[in-house]
Amino acid sequence: MTAVCALFPGQGSQSVGMGRNLCASFPEAAAVFDEAGDVLGLDVRELCWRSSRAVLAETENAQPALLTCAVAAWRVLAGGGVTAAAAAGHSVGALGALVVAGCLDFGDAVALSRLRGELMAAAPGDGAMCAVLLSPAMPRERVADIAEDCGVDLAADNSARQVVYSGERKRMRRFSSEVGARAKALDVSHAFHSRMMKPVEKDWRAAVERVGIRPPRVPVGLIGRGVFGTDPAAIRADLVASLCAPVRWRQVMAAAGTHPRVALGPARSLTGMERRGAASMRLADTSAAVRAVLAALQPSINEADRQGSRS
């Protein structure tokens, strides 16, 4: 079996230099960077490899850059015979999952990622986010009660051990203070996946509705609902809601099935979300890592080739 569950990271996973050795080693990866640059009208190699950390971290830059690197890694794996059984992406990574599933062309996806970043960066107000490491003394129910009292929103249910909350900065300071040492402020420019994104949701909805979404070839993660689905209308609705709705990653991963899981591009955040993540999820972020994934899957690829030749 060569089919894998293809997983795409969200913002915060970016790092200067990402994708460089993939492009140097694989023409399929270089072609993805070329296509992204043509669509966006900017040098994506320059952005990913030679910009400052601060410039790369800007929302309108980080989102298309991450998508480009992750899709580049996927194209290399696909060229080596790997196929998708399912696909899911954390936050903006959902666009990558739609590319793998055949719902969106990469050009449309990278254009949407750029616009999404621009809209999120332009949302009014002063927002902040923090991650909370859950414990018996600070379980998710207690954290949720504190959040409701403070007027902040669940932004991501990442795993059995971690949740992320988002909201107006003063409210988030109170929330962090009440949660205590297990709350860690995130280095982000705004309160993503919260009610503070509501003012730009209308423009995002209009952009998503202008793009054709084809029926997927494989199930895709509906991250706002925490399930996998194949209905184009449900996929579109989930994509529209993704600015304000929480990412229900824990539930998506619980529904992901038993196929090997491959985290694409700079996705160490995904492998680190579960205690079992490092063992059960392979990372494909560099040329060496991609080759290791292909080598690990090679017996299945060879078997699939043999089955195909007999049919």
Number of helices: 15
- The CA-CA distance between the termini, in Å, is 16 Å
Which architecture of the largest domain would the CATH scheme give at its second level?
A: 3-Layer(aba) Sandwich
CATH class (first level) name of the largest domain: Alpha Beta
Task: Tell me the overall shape.
Answer: globular
Rg of Cα set: 19 Å
Outline the low-pLDDT stretches.
none
By helix and strand content, what is the structural category? alpha/beta
General description of the model:
Keywords: Acyltransferase, Transferase. Its EC number is 2.3.1.39. It is an enzyme of class 2 (transferase). It catalyses: holo-[ACP] + malonyl-CoA = malonyl-[ACP] + CoA. With 311 residues, the chain is an alpha/beta fold. The chain has 2 domains: 3-123 and 195-310, Malonyl-Coenzyme A Acyl Carrier Protein, domain 2; 127-185, Malonyl-CoA ACP transacylase, ACP-binding (Alpha-Beta Plaits). Helix content is 52%, strand content 16%. The chain contains 15 helices and 10 strands. The longest helix is centred in the last third of the chain and has 24 residues, at 287-310. It is globular and about 50 Å long. The relative contact order is 0.18.
